[in-house]
Amino acid sequence: MKYKVLIIDDEERLRGLMKRIISLEGYEVIEASSISSGRQALAVQSPNIVLCDVKLRDGNGVDFTIEIKNKYPAIEVILLTAYGNIPDGVKAIKNGAFDYIVKGDDNDKILPLLSRAAEKVSLQERVIKLEKQLANQYSFDEIIGESPALKNAIALAKKVAATAAAVLLTGETGTGKEVFARAIHYASNRSQQGFIALNCSAFSKELLESELFGHKAGAFTGATKDKKGLIEEAKGGTLFLDEIGEMPLDLQPKLLRLLENGTYMRVGDTKELKTDIRLIAATNRNLQNEIIAGHFRDDLYYRIAVFVIEIPTLRQRSKDIPALAKHYLKIYTDKTNKVIAGISKEAMEALMQHEWKGNVRELKNIIERAVILEDSNMIEVTSLPYDLQHYGNENEGLPAYHLTTVERSHILKMLQYTNGNKAEAARLMNIGLATLYRKLEAYSIKSH
């Protein structure tokens, strides 16, 4: 990339000399003789780096640095002065200048300094690009589905995203609560700050407290140094607490205090810290029932449930299954470099009639498995798990307790458990392999 350098200096001869030197290094150079003309060049030419004299006819370069950085934060500013002094240098750096050098030294320093400034500009551009990719990846547009239940949840999430309100996402495991949490974050005015996620069910009470709030050295055995908590890491951004219903009761007052006045203490500390975060929580439990059972504080519930959004199950939006299946098919064919054009009619019908107790997460896993197993250019029903392979059979309509239904279901589960190894399944069921084959035929169970 060819970087643009704007030189702002009222000495025409010096400006021309610097232009020749810098141009020979491959930079595109723009000239301005005053702050006023420099301001116009910034708006029209979009330079990456500004070389600006400190003393100009219509202003001071140190003060102008603030204006540049406020309007164009990605631009790096290098200040040049005929008479350097420490207070001006300190002020320049505080105002956001990349560096401050004395004219006369610039022949030796300016080109290496420009190179370092260009590296910083390049890094900032990559960061901005990655942030845009993340924002696109986690935008509401990337949530697949057209069902009314899903559209309603998205509409609610979009409305609350622009606010600072705490959000509680409810719904079964695997429905995509974290996907919604990320979409809310990246649609908010905190999108340039961090999104920190923590599953409350993954830690013991002591570890969860330390992970969330941090700890001081010596707070407990093994705490050899101070540790920042995720609350501190999320400052200015969003903290997502998944499975908040699993949070131990005696830890809940600390979270409540944080939400009430923005203060908290690290484990083993006596000094209060202050922070600014947005909380999004999620649960697959009925927290009202947990309150009645004495497992969850009602005052904390009302703090986290300012805005409740229920994420629908896949069963509630079964019409979205084909679009979701095709979406994950593309993801996993790209990852495995396999050419699979689509999903057969029979396989799609099997997907449509499945119970989906694991919701979208289960569908995602099943498509990944099918892509790995499939050798043809279409996902066939034989690449699906055994319990999906025969969504319709001659035993359909028989009660769940019928011996035929129970035996067929058991065989399917054993084949699933042994990854299709019939000899191992027969051994585990204590029947002969020939007997298993007869039952497979009788129950119309296909296998690889």
Polypeptide structure, described:
The protein has 448 residues and is of the alpha/beta class. The protein folds into 3 domains: 131 residues, Rossmann fold (3-Layer(aba) Sandwich), CATH 3.40.50; 171 residues, P-loop containing nucleotide triphosphate hydrolases (Rossmann fold), CATH 3.40.50; 128 residues, Orthogonal Bundle (Helicase, Ruva Protein, domain 3). 47% of the residues lie in helices and 14% in strands. It has 19 helices and 16 strands. A 5-stranded parallel β-sheet has the order 2-1-3-6-7, sandwiched between helices. A 5-stranded parallel β-sheet has the order 9-10-13-8-14. Strand 1, helix 1 and strand 2 form a beta-alpha-beta unit. Helix 13 packs across helix 15. The longest helix is centred in the N-terminal third of the chain and has 32 residues. The two termini are 54 Å apart.
What topology emerges from the helices and strands here?
Elements: E1 4-8, H1 12-24, E2 28-32, H2 35-45, E3 49-53, E4 55-56, E5 59-60, H3 61-71, E6 76-81, H4 86-94, E7 99-102, H5 106-137, H6 148-161, E8 167-170, H7 177-186, E9 195-199, H8 205-213, H9 230-233, E10 238-242, H10 252-261, E11 263-264, E12 273-274, E13 278-283, H11 287-292, H12 298-304, E14 307-310, H13 321-336, E15 342-343, H14 345-353, H15 359-373, E16 378-379, H16 386-389, H17 403-417, H18 422-428, H19 433-442
Parallel strand pairs: 1-2, 1-3, 3-6, 6-7, 8-13, 8-14, 9-10, 10-13, 15-16
Antiparallel strand pairs: 4-5, 11-12
